[in-house]
């Protein structure tokens, strides 16, 4: 093989696995970094920034995630409906109690670049607040962090 040939992965060359990550007692930011890297495929040797080489990620026990410092009371999440007076402000602690999977989703989404490609990557992320998930037919591999 000549030396001036660059390898570029094609769709049939990429093996996509399903992995399960248990979020119980894990720090939110560190967990989001690991999930984002797994979605992008950065741990694989065939990683290419413009090709989807990442795996499907299932996050379980999202309601048991750990927040460090005063984030439960100080960190704020904003939603705006587009109407006057439609700004909704919610603390991290209330969002964790109300919809913990949204908290993990937003953390991972903000770790990825704001492009069409990252929106495609986020469709491979499945988050569940408790132990059960409906993806047992895909034979997911358990990841211990």
Would you kindly provide a brief summary of this structure?
This protein is of the alpha/beta class.
Computed CA radius of gyration, to the nearest angstrom: 18 Å
Q: How many strand units?
A: 6
Percentage of helical residues? Answer: 25-40%
CATH hierarchy, class: Alpha Beta
Note poorly predicted spans. none
Which superfamily, in CATH terms, is the homologous superfamily? Ribosomal protein L13
Short descriptors:
single chain, 145 residues, alpha/beta, Ribosomal Protein L13p, Chain: A, 4-stranded parallel sheet, two-stranded antiparallel sheet, 5 helices, globular
Explain what the structure shows.
- This protein has 145 residues and is of the alpha/beta class.
- It has one domain: Alpha-Beta Complex (Ribosomal Protein L13p, Chain: A).
- It has 5 helices and 6 strands.
- The strands form 2 sheets. The chain has a 4-stranded parallel beta sheet, covered by helices on one side.
- Helix 1 links the parallel strand 1 and strand 2.
- Helix 1 packs across helix 4 and helix 3 packs across helix 4.
- The longest helix is centred in the N-terminal third of the chain and has 13 residues.
- The chain is globular.
